[in-house]
Amino acid sequence: MVPAWLLLLCLSIAQVFPKDQYAELKVEVPENYGGNFPLYLIKLPLPPEETEGKIVLSGTPGVVAEGLFAVDPESGFLLVTRALDREEQSEYQLQVTLETEDGRVLWGPQPVLVDVKDENDQASGHQATATVDVFIVKNTWVPLDPVHVPENLKVPYPHPIAQVHWNGGDVHYHLESQPPGPFDVDTEGKVYVTKELDRESQAEYLLQVRAQNTHCEDYTEPLGLRVVVMDDNDNAPVCSPRDSPVSIPELSPPGTKVTRLLAEDMDAPGSPNSHIVYQLLNPEPEEGADGRAFELDFTSGSVTLGDAPLRAGQNILLRVKAVDQGGAEDGLSSTCEVAVTITDINDHAPEFTVSQIEPVSLPEDAEPGTLVATLMATDADLEPAFRLMDFAIEAGDTEGTFGLDWEPDSSHVQLRLLKNLSYEAASSHRLVVVVRSVAELVGPGPGPGATATVTVLVEKPVPPPRLDQSYKASVPVSTPAGSLLLTIQPSEPVSSPLRFSLLNDSEGWLCIKEVSGEVHTARPLQGAQPGDMYTVLVEAQYEDRPTLSTSATLVIHFLKSPFAWAPTLNPVPTRHLCTPRQDHGVVISGPREDPDPAGGHGPYSFALGPNPTVQRDWHLQALNGSHAYLTLALHWVEPREHAVPVVVSHNAGTRQLLVRVIVCRCNVEGQCMRKVGRMKGMPSKLSAVGILVGTLMAIGIFLILIFTHLTLARKKDLDQPVDSVPLKAAV
């Protein structure tokens, strides 16, 4: 008889389909297997243990009834209980289901094809017959077929896996494992595994069993036993670590490869337990988006760009689920993470913030280096290298009169004058400045915002105003504040209004009206001595060109104070002024006597006091040499009696007078309406209201008393007995 040769188990399971489809499992078993039984054939893909039900095995008629095949409910392995003969039956068609007590199928049916492999145990061809007498002593020390033990097998340990036997007596068995493993042999030659095996730690063991005498000497050569650990799905896929994020340029087309995920499964290569598929968890498509930003090939793990656009600077975390057993529901899984960064490209051309600059006026004599304008530009790219800009004057400067100045990493450029201007050659310049990206631009070219237009107007130089070299005035030391000393006038006509100011007025004695140029005393000339001179500087400048200015000296000669005089106001009828302002005023006159030219007297001059509020609210106009006209300067002045200070001056001296004027509201005829107090004997508003309320309360109380009386009388009539009513006499 030919010895049984190595048992080979070939497992071929198709990819797991939906629950109602199960690929047929195939397994080969050599006929006349001489090893131990039961022989574990293949692990069935049963549902999780928490699924309640009983395992039902069906198939070739008579096979199940004979108990030839069975399913171990603890490990889920299909096993055969005895040796098979191919000449008797070459294959067995089995079905395994998980059913409830009432026959409802929870799982399956799972088809299993058991193929009996042929052994050379039959004679064939032409035969010759001979008679030979042979005396045989049975040899039981024969080689063992390989033993297949499932990993993580849930059975009581130690668990028998093989049997050896020495046909002699007085034998001791000794077992050696290479590499060392959890195996043992007892005195009867039964080989045991003592604990669960792990295929990932060791897939095969080579055992040697020795038959020895009491002196530990081998009777014969040791028997070899190959133990193959069968795979179980006890390892989840493991994702390969990544040290740095994946960089993808923006505007990359759909289909661009991003990365490929490689998950490893420590279970048996090529088996369903190590068949990994991938599922994209996030990012999810944005609401309203036409497509996804990323696409995933579930078999290869390749990630490519989708149709949804991505923006530069985005940092995206891809989360992909790796599932073994081809993505089956009970497959083990893990999550892989990949960081993706969308890098910037130079796809934005720089643009000016303002493309049309308002005209800039430059005088003809402007010096080279003068700043004409500052232009600002922006670039929407994120990378600093892509934001570097280059500026140039594209048109309007054929003579090189202007130039540009900017820093390499700056976003603004200064337009400066390089040469002298000529009004006769060109009264205006229209410059076109262009901005470009230093780095090569990707995508569309520059837009209309890449140019800015600057118009430069050349102006003829305007000379500064001209004043006399010096101005002089003689003033008595007793001159009061607010007195007019002189008026500064330009020596030549001017094309623009002037503005005047005083410089180095150290004593603060003087003030000048900005528009008219009138110089007044700002305060009494205390400390001034007759014969002294006081010098200040008068500056005049154009109103619209403050830089064009000139100055002249003003010399004040102090004189001795003249004799005192007391001007009086001629009596005038009492007048009032209306507010809001009307066409009325108060006439102010000099002394009653006529001026005496022989006595040193001359015409009078009138001016308001130096108080800024008085000068704001009132206006004084000279009528002649002896009278002036006082009116309101504002449309509205507070209605009350006002004391207006008026400075009266003549050759003999200056005095300040207080003119009392009544300001009031007026009717349409211009008559003053004054506020009057309450007339005697007339009630006030409060007292009138009190009287009215008291009267109404008295009337109310009186009405209440009347209604109460009527109610009580009526009630009394209703309560009177009926028999008390007098009867009418019968006629």
Automatic annotation (TrEMBL):
Keywords per UniProt: Calcium, Membrane, Repeat, Signal, Transmembrane, Transmembrane helix
Any GO CC annotation of this UniProt entry: catenin complex
A single MF term (Gene Ontology): cadherin binding
BP terms from Gene Ontology: adherens junction organization; calcium-dependent cell-cell adhesion via plasma membrane cell adhesion molecules; cell migration; cell morphogenesis; cell-cell adhesion mediated by cadherin; cell-cell junction assembly; homophilic cell adhesion via plasma membrane adhesion molecules
Pfam families membership: Cadherin
Annotated signal peptide: 1-18
Subcellular locations according to the entry: Membrane
Principal subcellular localisation of the protein: membrane
Domain Cadherin per the UniProt entry, residue ranges: 21-135, 167-239, 240-352, 354-467, 467-569
Record SUPFAM superfamilies: Cadherin-like (SSF49313)
Residues spanning the membrane: 686-707
Designated name of the protein: Cadherin 16
Organism (species): Neovison vison
